[in-house]
Design goal:
The protein has 14 helices and no strands. The chain has 312 residues and is an all-alpha fold. Its main location: membrane.
Length: 312
Amino acid sequence: MIAYVVRRLWQMLPTMLGVVLLVFVLFNWVGGDPAFILAGKMANAESIANIRRQLGVDQPYYVQLWIFVKQIASFDFGLSWATGEPVSHIIATRLGPSLTVLLPLTLLETLLGIALALGVAFVRGSLTDRVVMIACTAGMSVSILVYIIVFQYGLAYKLGLFPVQGWGEGFWENLLRYATLPILIGLAVSIAPTLRLYRSFVLDEVGQDYVRTARAKGLGERRVMWVHVLRNAAIPIITHVMANLPALLIGAFLLERFFGIPGIGREVILAVERSDFPVIKAITVYVAAATMVFNLLTDLMYQAVDPRVQLT
């Protein structure tokens, strides 16, 4: 196990190097000169030269690349161009609100998706199965913006059950008061595609030989579904959940923007609007690193779920 983890971590280095080079090229060659962005339209050549010197972009490209690598290794991406705040502090303070929404959302989505998928697969081919699939297709056809506007207007503005938007200071206040409605909206949006996907995972296992063997031994249908089928269907389910976790941090920007949640997704949008390259570069690198780490954790979870899985 330890040897496998060390080998996988070692294999991440070339991938991370490729990400670093790609980000460096995009922001230094394709992204244009940041000095012109910061100086404004009325700036003179002297002020632009001073900004270039302060940012270090007047150095040769190999020097700039080495500075970028040192920033990644030290987790210090300098100061935000828009606010002057340290980038590491921005990410650290924005990560908490995002996780307050996304972790409960992911947990509820996964548990409900598994339970409903097993229930629908249990009555596969019936009228109930068809009705649920039609409802899922209809739900997937509605834009997330529609869900946000309808829930925010109906439940928050008209009924007053939740705050329209905002964010507090305490964890429990945020979780129980401000994050509840965004979590419900995210659940309403994601449960339909999740149910369809998990149902397909379960149905792929239902026709396997080990299921017929378990039934032939006299095991009840519920035990077959909840114990034998679920254990094998858990592998693609784990893959789906773990692969989506890094992207969720960025993908929840609409919820964070509409509800005024100071999270990572909202910060990315603000950074793009302000051309705040240090923040964008830092988040890009961190998301890439998180993706590789979650891929490693996914493989380790495979073996935890099914010890027969060999890590190679």
